[in-house]
Amino acid sequence: MSTAELFDFNAERKRRSNRMENQKLGYVPLYRSVKKTSWSKDVFLRTLWEDLLLGAQRKPRTVNFKGNLWDLQVGQLVVTPAELGLSLCDRNGKPTSRDAVVRMLNFFVKEGMISVDGEKRKGTVITILNYAEYAEKTDNLPAHKGAHYPAHNKPSDGAASGSDAAHKGAHKPAHHEQEGNNNNIKRLSSENSRESSNAALEKFLSAHPDAFVYSATGAKWGTQEDDRASRWIYEKVCV
Q1: Predicted structure pTM score
Q2: Cα–Cα dist 91/171, whole Å
Q3: Fewer CB atoms near the end CB (10 Å): N or C, the chain?
Q4: Beta partners for 135?
Q5: How far is CA 153 from each of CA 55, 71, 110, 159, rounded to the nearest angstrom?
Q6: Do residues 63 and 72 make contact, with C-beta atoms less than 8 angstroms apart?
């Protein structure tokens, strides 16, 4: 019988579940795709784009929005520019204006990233073009896969002006550029750490198919029989 050590089984299973779910939801390809764009340092555009991707439907469904039923397909979401602005606040908690959000959405439309349809007051249906590319599992991505939208690597004729106009006067470009750099560094470090941890854990599970409980690194593990034995010992000690 291998050496089994008592620890929080539920917490460990939850951590592993979260890691697997992150891969299924495409957080890694999302980050990589955004990083390669010409506007990635603009924190307002980047945050709005991530909000759209994470809010889009992963399967067809009917939703109730503002008292109306909307039949949404994969990669679609229904929202209003004003509500999107509530998630884009400055350091003082002031949300981005509706007009500024509309300009940013128009920028994404011009870049060929989304299409917009619907009445402005009742709701706007936003479709993420090529949404399936962002929902890929990490395992399916080549090490050096190109950008999902080649045109994003080069600023369009009006890309810079469109980006600046989206929130001109609302913040200082230099400040947000530095903030964007810091966020990129933190996220890159986090993604590298997560991918390395996932690879090591998957390698461990492949080599030890009978492992029932194990630590995050796989250094300590036990079979289902070990788990039952350790619980029996624990109960005896607590009596």
Answers
A1: 0.47
A2: 10
A3: C
A4: none
A5: 24, 33, 14, 11
A6: yes
